[in-house]
Amino acid sequence: MPDPIFLLLFLLYAWFSPRHNAQILFLKAQVRIMKDNLRRHGISYAVLEPSEKQELMRLGETLDHKVKDIFLINTWQTYQRWLNIERNGGKLKKPGRLRTISQTTRDLIVRMARENIEWGFYADSRRTEKVG
Questions:
Q1: Integer distance in angstroms from the first to the last C-alpha of the chain?
Q2: How far is CA 21 from each of CA 24, 91, 102, rounded to the nearest angstrom?
Q3: Is the domain of 2 the same as that of 36?
Q4: Same domain (yes/no): 31, 72
Q5: What is the pTM of this model?
Q6: What is the DSSP string of 7-70?
Q7: Half-sphere exposure of 106 toward its Cβ, with a 13 Å CA cutoff?
Q8: Which residues form the domain of 132?
Q9: pLDDT in tens, 110-131
């Protein structure tokens, strides 16, 4: 006779497994739809904060980082890059470009733009004043 605990676990698995699979399929469909919508608006990938990357890495660790077929928010190569950065003791960075222009240079550009009113915004604002 089968062990009652084994039988109970088997019944619970049989009860929850189809629902769990349906939930996973539902979530994957939502991600696919969101990615399609982003692509239509010219955005080809998600820009994640370091904390979001770390959360995905933590969850991926519970799956031994075998997430190639379920990592849908970005490319698989991106996930592998994050993994290599963490394994080598690096820090996941914020998205975007670092500010490489000093404050002095920025101030100089603004001053030159004000002195040369034929440039961009200042010229456009002057033209709109003439229109009315």
A1: 92
A2: 5, 34, 53
A3: yes
A4: no
A5: 0.55
A6: HHHHHHHHHHHHHHHHHHHHHHHHHHHHHHHHHHTT--S----HHHHHHHHHHHHTTTT--TTT
A7: 5
A8: 97-132
A9: 888 788 777 766 565 665 566 5
Supply 14's token pair.
């049989």
Domain count, the chain: 3
Under a CB-based contact definition with an 8 Å cutoff, are residues 13 and 20 in contact?
A: no
Asked whether the predicted pLDDT for residue 98 surpasses 80, the reply is no
Q: In this structure, are 25 and 8 located in the same domain? A: yes
Return the structure tokens found at 17: 């497994």
Q: What does the pLDDT read at residue 82?
A: 92
Shared domain for 38 and 73, answered yes or no, is no
More confident residue, 20 or 130: 20
- Residue 75's identity, in one-letter code, is T
CA distance 2 to 95: 56
